[in-house]
Amino acid sequence: MTQRGQQVVLVTGASVGFGLATAKLLAQRRFSVFGTSRRPDQHRELALQNGFTMLELDVRSDESARACVEAVQSQAGRIDVLVNNAGIVIFGALEELSIDEARAVFETNFFGVARMVNAALPIMRQHGGGQIINVSSLGGLIGTPGEGYYSASKHALEGYTMALRQEVKAFNIDVSLVGPGFFKTGIAQAAQPAALKLPVYDGMRERLSRYLRHNVEHGADPTILAWLILDIIESDNPRWRYGAGVDGVWLARLLPFIPRTLGEPLLRKVMGVEDSFLYRWLSRDWGK
Fold first, then answer.
1. Rounded to an integer, what distance in angstroms lies between the CA atom of residue 87 and that of residue 3?
2. Homologous superfamily of 4-203+220-248 in CATH?
3. Nearest to 165 by CA among 69, 116, 235, 238
4. Catalytic residues
5. Continuous segment of H or E residues that includes residue 262
6. Domain boundaries, the chain
7. What proportion of the chain, given as a percentage, has pLDDT over 90?
8. Could you tell me the pTM of the whole model?
9. Tens digits of per-residue pLDDT, 109-150?
10. pLDDT tens profile 143-156
11. Helix 202-217 and helix 260-271, axial crossing angle in degrees, nearest 10
């Protein structure tokens, strides 16, 4: 790979949250950065102010993925690093979500990554190497109630990333995954509600929504993840998976040692699947 100042980075979903923080930081560190948005005209001024170029991309479309990668190659001559960050959440109990809604989640969170990787790999091989960093979630390690298909898509992404890492190592292409916990990304506000709402889940849905909103609002700064991605890019021997944020790190380390007989009821109580003192205590706004 080329020296840092010459490296070309493509960051998907760069209009808000992790994507914006990452594109902004890498541009400040003198990478040549391209970000993406489904509505680039609304975000080009923001991108220019932060030193990167905004391109149009809908990761749900094969044609759009190819056109975006071709645009980067046309303007910069190469792609050294691909950061797959674009993602969506549809919130609701699994019984409430239709198969079409499930497909929509996977088209963005999983197949969108695969489209971008398939479009970028030939360019990386042509130039002798590269790096791919996929943004997963704590939901890739546990089945998160209320976000079941989101969790399923992130579980799939974790397995995909591990397999891809082995397949392209011989081409001098490094593949890593970052699994953030709760961060102030606006994902709770952007989450789409399920079209169907079954009364039997009303209480659980409200408690889960409150818990997730509370933890996102009190989460870590997305710049922390951006710095982690910078560290991965600059690493001589990047690992396959990194936790991000306090919860993203310690929970990933503890999970193998927590028996299911303890972990499952604890998860239900903490997140509000079951109303409990522990849920109410963890959902309090201690700043007031």
1. 30
2. NAD(P)-binding Rossmann-like Domain (3.40.50.720)
3. 238
4. 15, 136, 150, 154
5. helix 260-271
6. 4-203+220-248
7. 68
8. 0.89
9. 999 999 999 999 999 999 999 999 999 998 888 888 999 999
10. 889 999 999 999 99
11. 90
